Amino acid sequence: MVDVLKVGKCVLHKIDEALPADVDFKGRIVNGSVDRDRRMQLQAHHTGTHIVFASCRKVLGPHIWQAGAKKTDKKAHLDITHFSSITKEQEKQIENAANRLINQGHNISKGFMNKSEAEQQYGFSLYQGGIVPGNSLRVVNIEGVDTEACCGTHADNTSEVGWVRILRSSRISDGILRLEYVCQERAIEVLNHEAGILNDLCDAWGVNQDQIKDTALRFFHDSKRLKADVEKQEKQILDLQVKSALRDGKNHKFFVKSEQDSPTLYISYLPQFAEEFKNSGKGIAFIGSNFVVGLFGDPTGIQLAAIEEQCNAMSTKPVKKNVKDNVSFKFKEKGKKPINATGVASFMITGADFDVGRLAELLESQEIISLE
User: In angstroms, rounded to a whole number, what is the distance separating the alpha carbons of residues 308 and 351?
Assistant: First the structure.
């Protein structure tokens, strides 16, 4: 059975396979069974949604109104009206409030009531899931917690929900906040997964669980410091490469095989040498696995069309080319005049999975030599 729908007073069940055409099934009694584990999980998510909603009103305020919800056997989400995103601390407060309601074991009653009588007794907050047509309502009442008109499958006591674990919250539109969460068995799976991550970190780092935060922060700050040192050294190496090319008394065109992940370093650094490259008629290119970038004082010193063609033949992503004949650069140091060079070739070709060896051969065929 893959779907159930109600047409008038009839409940129709859709199955995943067509019935044999040569057999008359009309009037026969059909025996069906419910997947108990799936039903209990859906029940937990349905009931958990009422509990999470009540907890949101308790933590965030009585202005909270339900704007939508979805429950599957994998997870559930609740959309609420709220004027801003919520913090991780507020997420934790909502989760704690929900689990306290579960632990308190509130009884849950389900039954049909006359619509006008239900409205008089509980007010229009019944319709958190929208207005229900007809003169009768199925009312789900969690004693002292939440009362709504709802047709889903629900537990008889909040304790049956087991546990609520909020996965994340996000603003899906202006004034609408979505909370995603799991309950019961799915919550156990998430908690076990999170505990597994902590245990793996403890084993990998050789620390106790209460030392994970301090260790992670130390690694993070050390990583930032080392990254800054590496960037400084990379700039020094690039500076030496560029000046070596400019001071070479014999050759004019050079290329360097780069191990950089992106051309960012070259794009930001090369423009300051634009006038020197123009005056000397020299040029330099850097080739990496996903870029070719460079600066030539004499635009005729490099055949960019041939390089672009080669990149297109190799790249596993669309190739993009950007070529400029003028370069500007402003120094951070006071007193240095800005650079404004025209009649040059500043270029960048990007893609993916370039064969650096083949690119090197192509550049060499254009009499551009390796600086290494």
Answer: 10
> What local confidence, expressed as pLDDT, does residue 126 receive?
87
**3-class DSSP string for the chain:** CCEEEEECCEEEEECCCCCCCCCCCCCCCCCCCCCHHHHHHHHHHHHHHHHHHHHHHHHHCCCCCEEEEEECCCCEEEEEECCCCCCHHHHHHHHHHHHHHHHHCCEEEEEEEEHHHHHHHHCHHHHCCCCCCCCEEEEEEECCCEEEECCCCCCCEHHHHCCEEEEEEEEEECCEEEEEEEEHHHHHHHHHHHHHHHHHHHHHHCCCHHHHHHHHHHHHHHHHHHHHHHHHHHHHHHHHHHHHHHHCCCCCEEEEECCCCCCHHHHHHHHHHHHHHHHHCCEEEEECCCEEEEEECCHHHCCHHHHHHHHHHHCCCCCEEEEEEEEEECCCCCCCCCEEEEEEEEEEEECCCCCHHHHHHHHHHCCCEECC
**pLDDT in the model for residue 26:** 84
Overall average pLDDT of the 308-331 stretch: 94
This prediction's pTM: 0.70
Q: How does pLDDT run across 217-235, given as a tens digit for each residue?
A: 999 999 999 999 999 999 9
Decide if pLDDT at 145 tops 80. Answer: yes
Collect all residues with Cβ–Cβ distance below 8 Å to 162 and sequence separation of at least 6: 44, 102, 183, 184, 185, 187, 188
pLDDT band of residue 34 (cuts 50, 70, 90) is confident
Which structural domains are found in the chain, ordered by start? 37-204 (3.30.980.10), 243-370 (3.10.310)
